[in-house]
Specification:
By secondary structure, the chain is mainly α. It is built from four helices and no strands. It comes from Arachis duranensis.
């Protein structure tokens, strides 16, 4: 939402990048905890589905590309929008898959 507001000049670049950067590290930590939770509880399929996302996050973190730069946000706006949209699609898919497995296991 911040990127769409930035694109239509409803918000300035500093506010948009600070809002996005505020949630990046907690997102990475929650993803790592969720993957480790799947691994400890022997949910192998969910672990295998969440490992690429975790590796991608680690790759971004190691290259210091996980934060949005205020000066480069307009140049990378289309990539950032695609990146955030793919993350959203993956998380919604993961949510529905987790709910499916929870309901399936509770019915057995």
């Amino acid at each position: 939402m911040c990127l769409a507001d930035l694109e239509f000049d409803y918000i300035n670049a500093y506010d948009s990048s600070s809002r996005i950067n505020m949630v990046v590290l907690p997102e990475f930590i929650i993803q790592a905890l969720l993957t480790s939770f799947y691994l400890v509880n022997s949910h192998w399929i969910l672990t295998l589905l969440s490992l690429p996302y975790l590796c991608f996050n680690l790759h971004l973190y190691r290259q210091r590309k996980h934060l949005v730069d205020v000066t480069e946000i307009f140049n990378n706006l289309s990539w950032e929008k695609k990146h955030r949209l793919l993350k959203l699609i993956y998380l919604v898919f993961s949510l529905f898959l987790s709910l499916f497995w929870m309901i399936y296991n509770s019915l057995d």
